[in-house]
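Dear H.,

Thanks for agreeing to be a second pair of eyes. The structure we're designing against is below in token form, covering all 326 positions.
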């Protein structure tokens, strides 16, 4: 018993010493990417220490600010990829041939670290026939399913249409900027919004995120209604000779119980300027279990090291602690 206590104390003291050291001295290489990966540790309340990847020193302040605002960036020794996937349900419409299908309780599962997505499309087609399809893509493959995870039928001709969709959420778009590291450029719109543009070296898709500095919003996670928050409000994605667009509005911070995460409840997608989807979000979860989406055998080394849990750390945790003390 004494030996166990001593071992536990030694581990705890080592962790405290590591945290006290802060971030290591990291350098941005001349090519605009971090010279190598760095990792740190945080303590979970009931599960010991967990490692996380420290943000590359090449990632600029604008990207870090937006990542922190939407819950992707956390910790004094900052990590910016804490949201690795989302699950949300929505009603609305989606392009269906020459018309628009009506969606009812459609569900979207997205894994940013693979990347991969599964769409459960329920509702009524533009011609009035029932719509019930499961559309999937993962990395370089696309297929449809008769049931979740069963009855797969190849749909490779849809891959180029499905892959950009994963970037048409705030988290997916910011992932592209994070991966672009020091190659992100910044510009301003006539009405004062910031546009951050970068191309992930992993897929070569150019992604632009329009950011609005807002002081008039509902309570969003730790941000009070009049407190400055930097919100992604639009995305432009250029892929395969087409331009995909998204707008985000009506952010809420109460969709996920006991977790300070925010997500827009009005999402509109376009492709080449034409309507693709108009979604009203009714349910949202961050970092759901993705075992249902793909086997862990498909994860490469880079994916595994980024599989991080949702925890209140850094600025979010500090604010929570202040309120609990008060």
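And this is the sequence the design step returned. I haven't edited it by hand at all.
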């Amino acid at each position: 018993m004494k030996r166990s206590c001593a071992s536990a104390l030694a581990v705890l003291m080592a962790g405290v010493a590591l945290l006290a050291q802060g971030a290591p001295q990291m350098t941005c290489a001349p090519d605009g990417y971090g010279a190598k990966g760095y990792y740190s540790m945080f303590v979970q309340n009931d599960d010991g220490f967990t490692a996380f990847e420290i943000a590359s020193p090449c990632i600029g302040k604008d990207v870090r600010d937006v990542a922190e605002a939407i819950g992707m960036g956390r910790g004094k020794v900052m990590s910016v990829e804490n949201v690795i996937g989302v699950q949300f349900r929505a009603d609305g419409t989606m392009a269906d041939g020459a018309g628009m299908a009506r969606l009812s309780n459609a569900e979207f599962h997205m894994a940013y670290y693979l990347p991969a997505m599964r769409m459960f499309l329920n509702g009524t087609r533009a011609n009035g026939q029932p719509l019930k399809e499961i559309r999937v893509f993962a990395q370089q493959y696309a297929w449809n399913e008769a049931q979740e995870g069963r009855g797969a039928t190849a749909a490779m001709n849809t891959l180029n249409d499905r892959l950009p969709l994963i970037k048409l959420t705030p988290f997916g778009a910011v992932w592209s900027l994070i991966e672009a590291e020091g190659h992100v450029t910044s510009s301003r719109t006539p009405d004062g919004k910031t546009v951050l543009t970068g191309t992930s070296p992993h897929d070569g898709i150019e992604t632009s995120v329009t950011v609005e500095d807002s002081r008039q919003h509902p309570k969003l996670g730790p941000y009070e209604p009049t407190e400055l928050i930097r919100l992604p409000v639009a995305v432009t994605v250029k892929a395969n000779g087409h331009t995909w667009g998204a707008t985000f509005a009506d952010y809420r911070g109460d969709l996920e119980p006991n977790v300070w995460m925010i997500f827009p409840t009005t999402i509109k997608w376009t492709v080449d300027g034409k309507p693709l989807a108009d979604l009203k979000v009714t349910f949202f979860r961050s970092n759901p279990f993705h075992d249902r989406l793909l086997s862990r055998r498909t994860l490469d080394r880079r994916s595994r090291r980024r599989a991080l849990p949702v925890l209140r750390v850094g600025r979010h945790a500090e604010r929570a602690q202040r309120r609990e003390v008060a």
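Two observations from my side: The two ends are 38 Å apart (CA to CA). DSSP finds six helices and 15 strands in the chain.

Warmly,
E.
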